[in-house]
């Protein structure tokens, strides 16, 4: 569950301020995928980074599974990212020298998960994203779509209750993007994950339970998709 109330965030640089978010309210329920649309610079990445606790809000509240992100101290934010919130990025953000299975297993090394349990979970996740046969390959030996599926498996390794994806299809052709969104939608429904996907790709809206539109720092409901 994600609950956002009256969220504000400004950036100060050069001669002026950029008021990226001006009072955003949003609720996303477990098992629901919300697609966040808006032009480049509308504040989509800013909103996701605040939910993930990677940046601090100026004002307002964010709760994830009933726990306050906005009131959390740095240690609690680290714990949040290690146990609760999984993030998928547009450029995949895989470590280039590690194989697919090593990339997926990395969050579980950080949390010192028992190695046997880790290996079993990594194998299960790679199988789930259709990459069991590619476990030993490095990112530069895989296609963009395969790399994004590795990144999704890595985000899911901590068994997150919240999944945030920032332009997950931006580097992919339309068919591969559709496969990645199909996979994300299925995983969200199966696992009861609370998901926000930021995109400027209209095709992604078809995978949403709810579409919201960010413009000039405020959020408006855009449409309810059928899929
Ligand atoms: N670290 C920063 N310092 C200063 N300004 C920033 C910073 N990050 C973002 N901004 C500004 O805040 C606004 C919102 O940016 P943000 O990246 O959240 O938008 P976005 O909707 O994700 O855009 P895109 O689709 O291009 O990624 C923009 O005007 C941007 O220039």
UniProtKB/TrEMBL annotation:
Any one cellular-component term (Gene Ontology): plasma membrane
Entry keywords, A to Z: ATP-binding, Nucleotide-binding, Transport
Positions of the ABC transporter domain: 2-226
GO molecular function, one term: ATP hydrolysis activity
Matching Pfam families: ABC_tran (PF00005)
SUPFAM superfamilies membership: P-loop containing nucleoside triphosphate hydrolases
Protein name as annotated: ABC transporter ATP-binding protein
Species for this entry: Nocardioides euryhalodurans
Taxonomic lineage from the root: Bacteria, Bacillati, Actinomycetota, Actinomycetes, Propionibacteriales
């Amino acid at each position: 569950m994600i609950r956002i109330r009256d969220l504000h965030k400004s950036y100060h640089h050069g001669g002026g301020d950029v008021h990226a978010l001006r009072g955003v309210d949003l609720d996303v329920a477990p098992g629901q995928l919300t697609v966040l649309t808006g032009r480049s610079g509308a504040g989509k990445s800013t909103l996701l980074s605040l939910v993930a606790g990677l940046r601090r809000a100026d004002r307002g509240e964010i709760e994830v599974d009933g726990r306050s992100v906005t009131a959390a101290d740095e240690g609690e934010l680290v714990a949040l990212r290690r146990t609760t919130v999984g993030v998928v990025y547009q450029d995949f953000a895989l470590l280039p020298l590690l194989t697919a299975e090593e990339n997926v297993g990395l969050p579980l090394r950080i949390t010192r998960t028992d190695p046997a349990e880790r290996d079993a979970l990594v194998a299960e996740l790679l199988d789930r994203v259709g990459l069991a046969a590619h476990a030993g390959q490095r990112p530069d030996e895989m296609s963009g779509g395969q790399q994004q599926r590795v990144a999704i498996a890595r985000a899911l390794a901590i068994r997150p209750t919240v999944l945030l994806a920032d332009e997950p299809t931006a580097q992919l052709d339309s068919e591969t993007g559709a496969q990645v969104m199909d996979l994300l939608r299925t995983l969200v429904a199966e696992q009861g994950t609370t998901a926000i996907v930021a995109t400027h790709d209209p095709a992604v809206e078809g995978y949403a339970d709810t579409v919201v539109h960010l413009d000039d720092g405020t959020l408006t409901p855009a449409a309810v998709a059928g899929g």
